């Protein structure tokens, strides 16, 4: 191979993973390039990983054996081209740039697909939650939608001790309501009938069963929910439930039912253990349960405990743990809504319980005190202020156009004469500052109509009024300076900025 072709092949090799890149001074021959293409095409798309929680903070109670995490290898479809001595090496920069541009476009396309999927999930979650909430409300009535004031959402890896720590958590938080297990809720005859028919239990049915179970609890005390959420749609439904409980609180605050709608408090508890520890714990649990049941059968004393199939089969145990790892993205999404830490559940019961209570204290520190919250709760949330803004805008414009046409006409004339010319002059910048001393804007109705009309046409408008005082004369008797006051109105009009692409000069 010619030196120029060797340099080009070496430069192209940088596109591949460094595991396949040659030493700095090695010349790539044609057989090597062919072998490298075969090797690259046979790479697996993903390598088995160990602990997937490399991006989350874990509260440690004791050092636990961990398996190093292996990031999945990226599958490349780019192969090393082989050129003969007559190849045009001047094409190398263009080909490299094209490959880089294609990779950038693929990344942008992937990001766009993720964003579209995220928007679709949010829309689906709203539809699912609203329908489930309506179904439950139709049965119980609006006044009886009384949820517990504190809800602990308990999740964790298989064998992390959720059932073991549940009684201690209930005692520590003063919760007298029985815990809600999602596996028990989904074992009803109706759900079993769906499973027997080979159908999936929808998220809407899961949320509906959960809401009904929460309403069966005493609202004055809290409750613990085991096993929810387990999907990204359920995470979004959990957020919507929190918001709906706040809405009920504000709705009934000035009514005799206000005590039945307390301020909602959500606590997140996620227990974590390594896969090997999870495997050992579940196998040991199965062994102990089998020995216990055998002793009960021999002696006739005691109660037979439930034997789980997953406590005896290593493949099933690892499959359950893999499901937990697959749901890790849901935990990441949940942590952005309700901040929490993973809790290492490797230690003894007392040490893990101390970490759980410390985690609850941390989550409490992120919330306002009751009196402070009540003092500012009447102020609408920024995320809610614009929900009905479009309907209100249309209603105002229709009202002024029909009932006060003079005011409406004056506002339109002011926009045509003073606002539109300035907007046209600053069309490229995307922002125009309009200053006017027109006395019409002193009328609050005209100012409101001006802002409403511009808002309806897609402009973002803010208005500011300032008073300028100018000395006019001096009173010769009292030597008092007589000032003349002028009202100046400033309208800051913002709109989408337009980009003008410069023409490329071609020679």
From TrEMBL:
The keyword Nucleotide-binding applies. Keywords: Coiled coil, Kinase, Nucleotide-binding, Transferase. This is Adenylate kinase. GO terms for biological process: nucleobase-containing compound metabolic process. One of its GO terms (molecular function) is ATP binding. Belongs to the adenylate kinase family. InterPro entries: Adenylat/UMP-CMP_kin, Adenylat_kinase_CS, P-loop_NTPase. Pfam families: ADK. Residues 98-125 form a coiled coil. It comes from the Eukaryota.
């Amino acid at each position: 191979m010619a030196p120029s072709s060797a340099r080009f092949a070496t430069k192209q090799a940088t596109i591949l993973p460094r595991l396949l890149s040659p030493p700095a001074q090695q010349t790539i021959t044609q057989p090597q390039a062919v072998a490298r293409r075969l090797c690259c095409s046979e790479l697996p798309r993903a390598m088995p990983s160990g602990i997937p929680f490399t991006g989350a903070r874990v509260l440690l109670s004791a050092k636990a054996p961990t398996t190093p995490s292996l990031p999945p290898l990226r599958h490349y479809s780019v192969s090393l081209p082989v050129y003969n001595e007559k190849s045009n090496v001047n094409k190398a920069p263009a080909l490299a740039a094209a490959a880089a541009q294609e990779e950038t476009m693929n990344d942008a396309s992937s990001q766009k697909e993720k964003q579209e999927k995220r928007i679709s999930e949010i829309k689906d979650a709203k539809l699912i939650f609203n329908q489930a909430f309506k179904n439950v409300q139709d049965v119980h009535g609006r006044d009886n939608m009384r949820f517990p004031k504190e809800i602990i959402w308990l999740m964790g890896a298989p064998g992390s001790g959720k059932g073991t720590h549940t009684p201690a958590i209930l005692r520590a938080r003063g919760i007298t309501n029985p815990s809600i297990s999602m596996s028990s809720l989904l074992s009803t005859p109706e759900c079993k009938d769906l499973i027997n028919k080979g159908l999936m239990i929808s998220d809407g049915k899961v949320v509906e069963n959960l809401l009904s179970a929460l309403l069966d609890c005493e609202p004055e005390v809290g409750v613990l929910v085991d096993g929810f959420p387990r999907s990204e749609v359920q995470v979004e439904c959990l957020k919507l439930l929190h918001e709906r409980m706040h809405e009920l609180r504000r709705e009934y605050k000035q009514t005799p039912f206000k005590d039945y709608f307390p301020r909602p408090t959500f606590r997140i508890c996620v227990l974590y253990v390594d896969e090997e520890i999870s495997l050992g714990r579940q196998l040991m649990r199965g062994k102990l349960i089998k020995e216990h049941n055998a002793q009960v059968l021999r002696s006739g004393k005691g109660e037979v405990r439930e034997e789980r199939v997953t406590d005896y089969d290593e493949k099933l145990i690892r499959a359950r743990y893999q499901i937990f790892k697959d749901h890790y993205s849901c935990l990441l999404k949940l942590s952005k809504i309700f901040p929490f830490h993973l809790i290492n559940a490797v230690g003894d019961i007392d040490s893990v319980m101390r970490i759980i209570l410390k985690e609850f204290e941390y989550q409490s520190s992120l919330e306002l005190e009751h009196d402070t919250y009540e003092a500012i709760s009447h102020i609408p949330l920024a995320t809610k202020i614009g929900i009905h803004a479009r309907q209100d805008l249309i209603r105002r414009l229709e009202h002024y156009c029909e009932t006060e046409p003079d005011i409406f006409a004056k506002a339109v004339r002011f926009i045509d004469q003073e606002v539109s010319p300035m907007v046209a002059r600053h069309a490229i910048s995307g922002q125009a500052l309009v200053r006017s001393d027109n006395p019409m804007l002193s009328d609050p109705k005209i100012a409101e109509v001006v802002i409403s009309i511009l808002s309806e046409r897609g402009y973002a408008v803010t208005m500011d009024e300032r008073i300028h005082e100018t000395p006019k004369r001096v009173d010769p008797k009292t030597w008092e300076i007589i000032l003349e006051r002028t009202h100046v109105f400033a309208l800051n009009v913002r709109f989408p900025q337009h980009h003008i692409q410069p023409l490329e000069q071609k020679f």
